[in-house]
Amino acid sequence: GLLRLIQKEWCSFGHRFRTRLGLGEVPSGEYSPVFIQWLDCVYQLFRQFPTAFEWTPSILLRLATEALSNRYGTFLCDNELERSEKVKPFALSLWSILLKPDEASTWFNWDYAPTGKALIPSICQANYVIWDAYWFRYHVRGQQRSCPDAANASTLPGLSQPRAAVPAASVAP
């Protein structure tokens, strides 16, 4: 299923997790969280077809979190050779944790009903939403973050001069 797809298409084919996720000691200009973006796309598919997948979005959230956590060897390196030589002898694979029966039961989709057909998602922008569980996962429920309101937006903290309004005519289409 999903974990095998990630292992084969992302890990074994050499996605550069360390470089793209910025997991190295020295930040590089090659940071590009493509894997996280892909998980977000998969989440959008799940929203449109909630019974078409054997798993729930909780597994996507776990994968995204662990990809950035450095807790498991699965996403630590830039290729399979690096992983097998430098990480496998010393670190657990995330798959060994996620595939334990008690863990797997937490992300199994009990409403799963295979269709046998290709999924054709809507491309209408209204069908896509922010993946709140990931992008706002550190937001404390019940507490409102302090955000500058429109009246004070021109004097944001850290700016020595008030921001000038951009004339509408100068904004590119």
UniProtKB/TrEMBL annotation:
Q: Which residues form the Myotubularin phosphatase domain?
A: 1-135
A Pfam family annotated for this UniProt entry: Myotub-related
Question: Which PANTHER family does the record match to this protein?
Answer: MYOTUBULARIN-RELATED, PHOSPHATIDYLINOSITOL-3,5-BISPHOSPHATE 3-PHOSPHATASE
Q: In its UniProt entry, what is this protein called?
A: Myotubularin phosphatase domain-containing protein
Q: Which InterPro entries match?
A: Myotubularin, Myotubularin-like_Pase_dom, Prot-tyrosine_phosphatase-like
| Origin superkingdom | Eukaryota
| One GO cellular component term | cytoplasm
